[in-house]
Amino acid sequence: MDVLSWLLPESFSTFGRDIDRLYYVILWITGVVFVLTEGLLVWILVRYRHREGRRAAHIHGHRTLEMVWTTVTGVIVLGLAVASTGVWHHVKRDVPAGAMEVIVTAKQYEWNVTYPGPDGLLGTDDDFTRRNALDVPDARPVLVHLRSEDVIHSFFLPELRVKQDALPGKSIRVWFEATRPGTYVIGCAELCGLGHYRMQGQLTVHAAADYQDWMQAALAEADQ
Ligand SMILES: [Cu+2]
Asked: Is residue 86 domain-shared with residue 107, that is, in the same domain?
């Protein structure tokens, strides 16, 4: 990941493009509003600066102007909310059937990932846990049961456009489907304590055909 970039890295997620489209629409709207308001502010500062002999005028607001900027802002915000509901629902609610399931348990300052083992089922004898390493197949939905042992953390997969708070006492469902094998970053996006900065794991996306081999090897390693 290019840490020097202001923007998100290229996405490798099935819903990444939808999220990015919303992101750039919001960035453009807020960007234009920001430039216009700051420009106006600077112009007013210069135009009405102190001059010897000029008296200040007392102004008690402008009803019409206030109604207009409040209404326009309200319409834009409501429009964005309506435009994003479809994507929101897809990302937060539509967990695809047949997803591979893992448990990610956050704690100060690491991510522990529990895998279902070769039988593909969580809660059976061949489950095993690895620290700071989430390995998944590509082109297959992955359902994460996200938990926290201590404080609030935020499970962040920048390349997958996934960010979800992990709350103690709750198990939250998060899903994604990676579209390209590779190694990516798992970050914590919530200031969770003194060691927050080193709370970093690695997401490895394997080619689907290689994934069972990886699972067998990881299980053998975990048993030692
Ligand atoms: Cu954390």
From this structure: no
